[in-house]
Amino acid sequence: MSVLSTLRHAGRKTVAGVAALATAAGLMVAGGGVAQAQGNRDWLRPDATGTCDWDGVGFWVQRCDVWSDAMGRNIAVQIQPSGRGGNAGLYMLDGLRATEVSNAWLVDTNAAATYADSNITLVMPVGGAASFYADWNGPATYDLENPVNYQWETFLTSELPAYLEGNFGVARDNNSILGLSMGGTAALTLAAKHPQQYRQALSFSGYLTTTMPGWQTMMRAALLDAGLYNLNNMYGSVLSPRRFENDPFLNMEGLRNTDVYISAATGVAGPQDAGYLPEHQASGAALEAASRVSTQAWDAKARAQGINFTADYPETGLHNWANFGDQMNKTKGRVLDVMNAH
């Protein structure tokens, strides 16, 4: 078991204690090594339970509980403060099978290590499986005895920005947002609906045509497979106006003044996919091919409407973290340039 896995399973409070001792000694745990603490990063911010905890991933990441009135509970958010007090934020959204343990950007790749030298605050919400980071009309699952209340759009565009502004110095109007798969869909949707908050949006293998024929059926099957989530309660009936308002293919006008980046590979396995099991390669191929079709359809319409964006279509790549992590690394410079956060 890796050091990261060991720390993750040791429990949040144990990890917090270890990191606190490291801080007291003037050092901060940073992945597999040790680095000198940075002024804007070496102290724990307050949160809904008192103070945030040091996260086991290292690299100055704090795990903070942020109260959501809309959802009626605390939402865990993993946050790496900007290196030198910059006020830009980068929201990093998870995929369909997001867990309550950690945002996958810190598990399946290490975004905190990638951005360790940068002057931007990484904002990585935990949870939201199958949510598409939307405000749902009703309980997200069929288990009415333990209803799941999803109000993610409200949290990400109202409640969390207020917390970040007050405790991490993140401006409400100086943010970038990216996501993989489900998170890529949500990144473009949220940026289009809230252009005053997000100056940049990046979709890595997202599904950008959610109301075209056949896509609601595919989403329904995916949500059921992810944990019996009820698509009917996301926006209401198939003809609900909210379904169309939250389709990136239909709301792209809101991105006219936004820096937009989209990507999707072919679904053809390359050398980077050799370590994946055959069954994972098969599912990854199908999911990525579908994303490619959807993303290119969005691309064609955006070009016709004069929306400025950049597209990257690798010749090989599956719907997996070899692909998503590569896109994160490719776009780091773009994010920092646009957000003036080097």
UniProtKB/TrEMBL annotation:
<dbReference type="InterPro" id="IPR050583">
    <property type="entry name" value="Mycobacterial_A85_antigen"/>
</dbReference>
<dbReference type="GO" id="GO:0016747">
    <property type="term" value="F:acyltransferase activity, transferring groups other than amino-acyl groups"/>
</dbReference>
<dbReference type="InterPro" id="IPR029058">
    <property type="entry name" value="AB_hydrolase_fold"/>
</dbReference>
<protein>
    <submittedName>
        <fullName>Esterase</fullName>
    </submittedName>
</protein>
<dbReference type="InterPro" id="IPR000801">
    <property type="entry name" value="Esterase-like"/>
</dbReference>
<dbReference type="Pfam" id="PF00756">
    <property type="entry name" value="Esterase"/>
</dbReference>
